Task: inverse folding
């Protein structure tokens, strides 16, 4: 069984590319995952490279940015390639099947939501929480 679930913060903005010919979207990013045990009070993290394909890749690139908290589920994959200098390079990465945005948006939008000044647009009617019976 090869299954991995990680929660961490993006170390930089996701990189969205499209495969020539097929046009399939692929997004790559690295997440910093805190280690459970810390050495001498110093926080430690592992930096895990992640690859996402298809529509999930496009959404991740469009809605997530550096420093945002993200949850991913997928599998560990290894591959190798020949570098420009002729040496063989090996890569271990997580290929994500599921992505959860645990922290998203920008501060300006979040402040607008807190002040109830958000413009919902013509197709959305806001619901007052007081009207919900549960």
Result:
């Amino acid at each position: 069984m090869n299954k991995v679930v990680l929660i961490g913060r993006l170390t930089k903005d996701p990189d969205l590319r499209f495969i020539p010919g097929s046009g399939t979207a692929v997004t790559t990013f690295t997440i910093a995952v805190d280690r459970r045990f810390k050495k001498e009070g110093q926080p430690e993290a592992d930096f895990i490279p992640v690859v996402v394909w298809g529509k999930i890749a496009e959404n991740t690139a469009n809605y997530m940015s550096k420093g945002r908290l993200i949850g991913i589920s997928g599998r560990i994959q290894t591959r190798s390639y020949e570098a420009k200098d002729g040496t063989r390079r090996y890569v271990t990465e997580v290929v994500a099947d599921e992505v959860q945005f645990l922290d998203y948006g920008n501060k300006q939008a979040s402040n607008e939501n807190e002040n109830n000044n958000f413009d919902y647009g013509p197709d959305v009617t806001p619901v007052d929480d007081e009207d919900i019976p549960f």
